[in-house]
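Weekly modeling sync, notes
Attendees: S.R. (lead), two postdocs, one rotation student

Agenda item 3: backlog of single-chain predictions. S.R. asked that every request posted to the team notebook include the full sequence so nobody has to chase files. The rotation student volunteered to paste the first one in as an example of the format we agreed on. Action items at the bottom.

Example entry:
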Amino acid sequence: MRDGEFKAMQGFMAFVDHVHPYVPARAQSFGIRSGMTVVDYGCGPGRYTAEFARLVGDDGAVYAVDLLDIALEQTEKRLVKLGVCNVSLVKAEGYDTGIPDGVADMVCAIDMIHHIDDVPTLLREISRISKPGAALLFSGGHMSRRAVKAKVSAGGAWRLVEEQKHFLRYEK
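Predicted structure, as returned to the notebook:
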């Protein structure tokens, strides 16, 4: 995605959040608790990142991962503005995040799977950084639920355990 496209998407998201501020309630429904380590994989402009940071609290941590420099820059601006300190920004190189093995209690991939060409490689990386029993949440957004389920089930490492209106929860 080019910087101009990203900024247009970010402007649209800001408008949607102003008209219908659903991000806090949706993030709350994910089951994030104090002290967890959460990865916001494909964080975009950080709409969910700050909310995840609030939910994990001072004893938890959030990794905000994206391929785009502009996404991480915009996420950092949002976090600084809100005074959030428990987030590490991570520039992914392809599907490699560089996050240590087995640290994540939960990985949230919100409206990003439609950008992924190699879902099995993505799922291997998410599996690598996740603890045993970790949760993986996908929200399809631009991809049908059926397509998301087909792509994730083809990866084999994750088991679908819950379907909610706004997300699918998998466990390792």
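Discussion: group reviewed the output briefly. Strands lie at 37-41, 61-66, 87-91, 104-110, 130-139, 159-163, 168-171.
Action items: rotation student to repeat for the remaining queue; S.R. to check formatting next week.
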